[in-house]
Design a protein that fits this description.
It is a single chain. The radius of gyration is 19 Å and the shape is globular. By secondary structure, it is α+β, with helices and mostly antiparallel strands. Strand 8 and strand 9 form a beta hairpin. About 35% of the residues lie in helices and about 20% in strands. It contains ten helices and ten strands.
Amino acid sequence: MEMIDRYRITGRIGSGSFATVYQGHDDTLDVAVAIKVLAENWSTNDDVRGRFLAEARLLRRLSDERIVRVYDIGTTDRGQPYYVMDIANGGSLDQLRKRRVQPGLALRLCAEATRALEVLHKHQLVHRDITPGNVLLNNTKSGVKVLLADLGVAKSLLDEYRDTMTAGTPAYMALEQAKSTQLDQRSDLYSMGCVAYALLTGHPPFPIKTLQDLLSRNSAIGPVPIAEQIGAPASLDTFFASVLSPDPNRRPQTAAQLAKAFDHFAAQLPGGDLYSCLLYTSPSPRDS
């Protein structure tokens, strides 16, 4: 039985370039947890290690029900830093993207995710990596809670220095973010628009896989219209053309405005009533 300090490892949730997230159990408190562990080959890199620990501290400091919470932090026997956080038992929006759900429900969940973004923005933070996989769902007795995760590349707008590092996932990244110019909260709103489009269609709005794809794409060409396809009013296509505009000034200017727009369209589509959202059933462990 593998252990990380007092936490018993019960499974593997997923891994990326820098870290692996495990499903675990705190036998002392008798609760399920998620444990994010920095990869061994990065543990001696001071910059990566510092960013990993900064993410843990940031998540702990925010302390909001819409953001994944951190409960403990430590170092494994192999010298790898880790932190312990909420486990989301309902999977992520990426699983919904692959399975497809009613369009109204998809937009209602995006509205809730955008309200989580609003929490970050009120703290003068830009997430910089909003993707379906970083929006988690947690089933509770009071209904489904949407949680925002993975703040590993989040940036404070209050920093005195200019961070020129390009961070994020190209298929969900705004053009100005790829160019490391004019970065502000509206870049996150573009990414959330990409997430919503992906939930409605099964794929991101533009065929982008690499940063070069994004930089070389003809930005004058907007997203393919989808309103007729999903039985939505034509104004939905106008909305997506706006939120996915290369010009930040054409997008909704705040997370609150974007969440309101998602709710507006959700109310007109199947599955968009709030009661349906609260009754969403989580995917089975096989889908994770």
